[in-house]
Design brief:
heterodimer; A: alpha+beta; Beta-lactamase; 19% strand; B: 420 residues; two-stranded antiparallel sheet; 4 strands; disordered C terminus
Chain lengths: 473, 420
C-alpha cells in the first residue's frame, strides 16, 4: 500500500504540465505508423489480387488460353499440344505471337501471360476461357509470308485510320508447333521479329530528310530546288557521294530526285543549308530518332518493345552526316517505325493513329474486355510537311509503281540498303508506303534481305499484301 | 464526459475460445477427427482456459494485451501444427507459453516506471553483454549461438533491451551536463552511442535485416524526446531531421554491400530458381491459396526454406487464404494499437510503447512486404507467428512492456486531480 502511494506521488511539478502533451504525441506517432502500415497492407492486398494471374503464369502453375486473330483463327493455344493443329498453322506467326516456353521474351504471349492464364484469384485454377484476340489477319499474314518464297525479311502493315495491326511477318520464323529440339540448327533470326528491330533503311530514309527539309524551308521552296547529278558528287569535305545511276540524272527537281532516289541531290540538299542541320536534328528527334547518342523513347506495341531509330548527324558538310541522311552510315530504323511514319503521312496530319495489336481480352470466366482506345502518336512533323511528302510519294507510286499497284491509290518510297554484317556485305531491299483506298487503308513497310535483281521485289510483296488485306473489316 | 464501459475480461476470453474453436473446426474439415487433431484442439483450448484463469487471478485490469496475446499464440500454434500436414508443433507451443510467461515477467519488471528507470544501468549492462556475446560467442559473422541442443539468437533479445534503453523519463531528460560550453543530456548521448554500436555490429555480421528495426526504435525515441523538449516542434527542425534521414538513407544505399545491392536491384522473375526462388514460391503460393486457401495442411510451400519463419505470411495465405492471412496480421497489429485505446500513463511508458510498436511494425513490414517482393527480402520474423524460440520470447518481453504501459499504477493521481 505504501509502495502504491509512493508511485502515485508526482515527482516534479513540471511533469504534470509537460507529460500529458508528450504522451499524446507518443500516441500520435503510433497512430501514424499504424496508419501507414495499414495503408501499405491494403496496397499489398490489391497488388496480390491483381497480380496473382501474373504470378501463376510466370511460375507455370496454371494452364494458358489461346491467342487468335481477328476472325478467331488460333495463333497460339496453351491448353493443348500445338501438334494437334494442322501442320504450318503457326509457321508465319511464331516469332510474333510466341509461346510459353520462355525462348522468346518480346512476343504477344510473353507480354500477356497474365491475361492468358486460366486462373482467377476468386475461382483459382480452372479449365477456363482465357483468350487474347488480336487484330491480325492470319490469312493475310500467311499470304505475305508465303510471298517471300525462300527470301528472308519482314513485312508489317496496319490500318492507318483505325490503328489495327493487320500483318506482321518476319522470316525466318520458328514454328512453335515443332518445338525447340533443333534450336542450334535454326536459321539465325528465327526467334525474333525483325519488324521491331532497327536495320539500315537505305533510301527510305530520304522520306525523313525530305520531311525535315519541308519543315525547315517550306514545301514550295524545297520543291523548286534543283541540283545537278553527274553520277558522282564531291562534298565540301572532299568526300565523294556516288549515285546508283553511274552517268547521273542531270539537273533535276525534288520530285524527280525523289523518284530517282538520287543520292547526290539529297546530299546537296543537306549541305546547302536550306534545311539547317539543327532543323533536321529537331525533326528527326520528334520523329523518334535517337540522334547523336541521345536517348529516344522506346516504342511499344501492346507491351512488345520496339527499338527506336538512331542516327548520327554532326556537320552538314561531313560525309558521315550526309550519308546518314541518305539512310546509310550510322542510320538504323525498324520497319515498324517506317510504317508508323507512313501512317502519319497517309492521313496528312503528321501524327499517326497509334497502332495496336490486341483487340480484346477474355477472362477465364468468359468476360470480354475490349482493349482501351489507343489515341494518336505525338506530332512527328507538321501537317504541311506530311501533305507535301504524301503528294511526292503518291506521284512516285503513280509514275513508277503503276503495274504493282494497279487498281490501288498508293504512295511509296523504295530503298536499297548496303549492309555490312560483321564483314559480310550485302544489300537489302525496302519499300515503305501507304494505300489510300477505302478497301485497304494501310501503311506498310516491306524488307527483303539480300535480294537479287531477278528475285521477287518489295513491290510485288506489297501487292500481295494489299490484295490480302483488301476488304478486311 | 461519458465514460465508455470496457468490455469485460471474461467476454474477451470467450471470444478467444470461440475463434480457436472455429479454427479447429476448419482443421477437422481438412484432416477429419484424428488423434492428432484432438490433441491439438485439447492443448490449444486448454491453454486458453488455463491462461484465462491465471489472468483472472493475477491481473484483471490490463486485459487487452493478454487477450490478444492468447488469441495470437493459439492461432500461431494451430498454423504451425498444420503447415504441410498435421503434426503438433511442440517446440513452437512451448516457446509460445514461454512468450506468455515472459510477457507477465517483463510486465512486473516495468510496470513501475520509476523502478524501471532506476534499473537503466542494468539495461545498459545487458545491452553490452548481449553485444559482446554476439561479437565473441556467435560463429563467424553470424547472429547465432549454437549450444548443441538449442541455438539462440541473442540479437533478438537485444531488441527489448534496446527499447528499454530508448525509453526515458522526463526527469532523466532534465538532467543536463555541460562540457566545453555545450549542454547535453547524457542519456541521449548514450542512446546515440548504443544505436551506433548496433549499426556497426549488424554491418559486421552481414545481417542488416534487423537494422531498420533498431533505427526505427531509436528514431522514434529521438522524436519523442524532441517532443518533450519543445512545446511546439519547430518545422525547420523536422525538415532538417527529415533531410538528415533521407541523406543517411541515400548514403547507406550507396555504401550497401554487394549482396544488399543485389537484393535491392534484383528482379525475382528473371532469376526464379536463384535469388528470387523464395519470393516467387511465396507469391505463387498466395495466388494458389486465393481468398480462402487450399485448406489446412494442403499447402506445398512448406517444402521451401524459411516457410515457417521468413515467408510464413505466404504459408498461411496458401493454406488458410489471403483473408485469414490479413486478419492474422491485423490481429497482431492490435497489440501495438492497444495503446491508442488505453494510453500509456507515464512519459517513460510512452517511450516503451512506441518502441514496441516500432519493433512490431517494422518487423512485420520487412517480413510481409519483403516476402511479397514490394521491398527487399530480409530474414526477419513476424512476432508470435513465425517459428523461432528467441524471436518468440523476445516478442513476449516486448508485449509485457505494452501491458506495463497500460497498467493502472498511476491512475490514482490523475483521478484525484479530476482528469479523465
Amino acid at each position: 500500500m505504501a509502495e502504491r502511494q509512493k508511485l502515485q506521488r508526482p515527482p516534479r511539478p513540471v511533469l504534470d504540465i509537460s507529460a500529458p502533451r508528450s504522451m499524446r504525441r507518443a500516441g500520435k506517432w503510433t497512430a501514424l505508423i499504424l496508419t501507414a502500415f495499414i495503408a501499405a497492407l491494403i496496397y499489398l492486398g490489391y497488388t496480390l489480387i491483381t497480380e496473382s494471374s501474373f504470378y501463376m503464369a510466370k511460375s507455370g502453375s496454371t494452364t494458358y488460353g489461346i491467342v487468335c486473330d481477328r476472325t478467331g483463327d488460333v495463333l497460339f493455344d496453351g491448353s493443348q499440344p500445338l501438334t494437334n493443329y494442322p501442320a504450318g498453322q503457326f509457321a508465319d506467326v511464331g516469332n510474333l505471337i510466341g509461346d510459353t516456353s520462355g525462348q522468346m521474351s518480346n512476343t504477344v504471349v510473353a507480354k500477356h501471360l497474365s491475361e492468358l492464364a486460366n486462373y482467377s484469384f476468386t475461382y483459382g485454377n480452372q479449365a477456363g476461357k482465357a483468350k487474347v484476340e488480336t487484330t491480325l489477319s492470319h490469312s493475310a499474314n500467311r499470304a505475305v509470308f508465303n510471298a517471300f518464297g525462300e527470301k528472308n525479311g519482314a513485312a508489317v502493315a496496319y490500318n492507318w485510320r483505325t490503328g489495327e495491326m493487320l500483318v506482321c511477318v518476319s522470316r525466318p520464323c520458328v514454328d512453335i508447333a515443332q518445338g525447340y529440339a533443333n534450336l542450334d540448327s535454326m536459321p539465325s533470326g528465327s526467334l525474333l521479329c525483325k519488324a521491331f528491330f532497327p536495320t539500315v533503311p537505305g533510301s527510305t530514309q530520304k522520306v525523313s530528310t525530305l520531311l525535315a527539309a519541308y519543315e525547315a524551308a517550306g514545301v514550295d521552296t524545297v520543291n523548286a530546288l534543283q541540283f545537278d547529278c553527274t553520277g558522282k558528287w564531291v562534298n565540301a569535305g572532299g568526300d565523294t557521294i556516288n549515285c546508283h545511276q553511274a552517268y547521273g540524272h542531270g539537273t533535276q527537281d525534288l520530285v524527280h530526285a525523289f523518284a530517282n532516289s538520287c543520292n547526290p541531290y539529297f546530299a546537296q540538299l543537306v549541305q546547302s543549308g536550306i534545311a539547317p542541320l539543327s532543323s533536321i536534328i529537331g525533326t528527326y528527334t520528334r520523329m523518334g530518332y535517337a540522334v547523336n547518342g541521345e536517348k529516344a523513347d522506346t516504342l511499344s506495341l501492346d507491351g512488345i518493345t520496339i527499338q527506336p531509330a538512331s542516327t548520327k548527324l554532326s556537320d552538314a558538310n561531313n560525309f558521315e552526316t550526309q550519308w546518314g541522311a541518305l539512310g546509310q552510315g550510322k542510320t538504323l530504323v525498324s520497319p515498324y517505325q517506317l510504317m508508323l511514319w507512313q501512317g502519319a503521312i497517309a492521313n496528312g496530319s503528321g501524327s499517326a493513329v497509334q497502332p495496336y495489336l490486341i483487340r480484346s481480352y477474355t477472362s477465364p470466366t468468359g468476360e470480354v474486355t475490349e482493349a482501351p482506345a489507343h489515341g494518336a502518336t505525338p506530332q512527328f512533323f507538321t501537317a504541311a510537311a506530311a501533305q507535301g511528302v504524301k503528294d511526292v510519294e503518291t506521284q512516285n507510286a503513280t509514275d513508277h509503281y503503276y503495274i504493282s499497284f494497279d487498281g490501288y491509290s498508293c504512295g511509296c518510297k523504295s530503298g536499297t540498303a548496303q549492309v555490312n554484317d560483321d564483314g559480310r556485305e550485302y544489300e537489302n531491299s525496302l519499300l515503305a508506303g501507304f494505300c489510300l483506298d477505302d478497301r485497304a487503308p494501310v501503311a506498310f513497310c516491306i524488307l527483303i534481305e539480300e535480294r537479287q535483281s531477278w528475285e521477287i521485289s518489295t513491290a510485288q510483296i506489297a501487292r500481295v499484301l494489299l490484295n490480302a488485306v483488301s476488304g478486311i473489316s | 464526459m461519458t465514460k465508455t464501459k470496457p468490455i469485460s475480461h471474461p467476454f474477451l476470453l470467450l471470444l478467444v475460445l470461440i475463434a480457436h474453436a472455429a479454427m479447429m473446426l476448419l482443421v477437422i474439415l481438412s484432416f477429419g477427427i484424428t488423434p492428432e487433431v484432438i490433441k491439438l484442439a485439447c492443448i490449444v483450448l486448454t491453454a486458453d482456459f488455463v491462461g484465462s484463469i491465471i489472468l483472472q487471478i493475477v491481473q484483471r485490469e490490463a486485459c487487452t494485451v493478454d487477450t490478444v496475446l492468447l488469441l495470437v499464440i493459439g492461432m500461431s500454434t494451430i498454423y504451425q501444427s498444420c503447415f504441410g500436414g498435421l503434426e503438433f508443433a511442440t517446440k513452437h507451443f512451448i516457446f509460445s507459453v514461454g512468450a506468455f510467461l515472459m510477457c507477465q515477467a517483463s510486465y512486473l519488471v516495468t510496470r513501475n516506471p520509476y523502478r524501471a528507470e532506476r534499473l537503466k544501468p542494468l539495461w545498459y549492462f545487458m545491452f553490452f553483454a548481449l553485444v559482446a556475446a554476439i561479437r565473441f560467442l556467435t560463429g563467424s559473422r553470424s547472429m547465432w549461438i549454437d549450444l548443441g541442443f538449442i541455438t539462440i539468437q541473442p540479437s533478438e533479445f537485444v531488441k527489448p533491451v534496446f527499447v528499454l534503453i530508448c525509453a526515458s523519463s522526463i526527469r532523466t531528460q532534465l538532467k543536463k551536463s555541460e562540457y566545453l560550453g555545450i549542454h547535453f543530456v547524457p542519456d541521449n548521448l548514450l542512446l546515440i552511442f548504443c544505436t551506433a554500436v548496433i549499426a556497426v555490429l549488424q554491418w559486421w555480421c552481414r545481417d542488416l535485416g534487423s537494422l531498420p528495426t533498431f533505427l526505427a526504435v531509436a528514431g522514434l525515441a529521438v522524436m519523442l524526446r524532441f517532443c518533450y523538449l519543445r512545446e511546439k516542434i519547430s518545422v525547420r527542425l523536422i525538415v532538417f531531421l527529415g533531410l538528415c534521414v533521407v541523406a543517411a538513407g541515400v548514403f547507406a544505399w550507396k555504401l550497401a554491400p554487394a549482396y544488399v545491392q543485389e537484393r535491392l536491384h534484383s528482379d525475382i522473375w528473371s532469376d526464379m530458381s536463384g535469388t528470387g526462388y523464395q519470393q516467387v514460391k511465396a507469391l505463387t503460393a498466395i495466388a494458389e491459396g486465393g481468398w480462402f486457401g487450399k485448406g489446412a495442411g494442403n499447402g506445398s510451400l512448406i517444402h521451401v526454406a524459411a516457410s515457417r519463419t521468413d515467408i510464413v505470411f505466404s504459408t498461411i495465405c496458401e493454406e488458410w487464404g489471403l483473408f485469414t492471412g490479413m486478419m492474422t496480421v491485423i490481429l497482431v497489429l492490435f497489440l501495438p494499437a492497444s495503446i491508442l485505446t488505453v494510453p500509456p500513463r507515464s512519459y517513460y511508458h510512452s517511450g516503451l510503447a512506441v518502441g514496441v510498436a516500432a519493433v512490431f511494425m517494422v518487423q512485420m513490414t520487412l517480413n510481409i512486404f519483403g516476402s511479397c517482393n514490394l521491398i527487399p527480402f530480409t530474414g526477419v520474423t513476424i512476432p508470435f507467428i513465425s517459428q523461432g524460440g528467441s524471436s518468440m520470447l523476445a516478442s513476449g518481453i516486448l508485449a509485457g512492456f505494452l501491458k506495463a504501459a497500460q497498467a493502472p499504477v498511476l491512475t490514482g493521481r490523475r483521478t484525484e486531480k479530476g482528469e479523465s
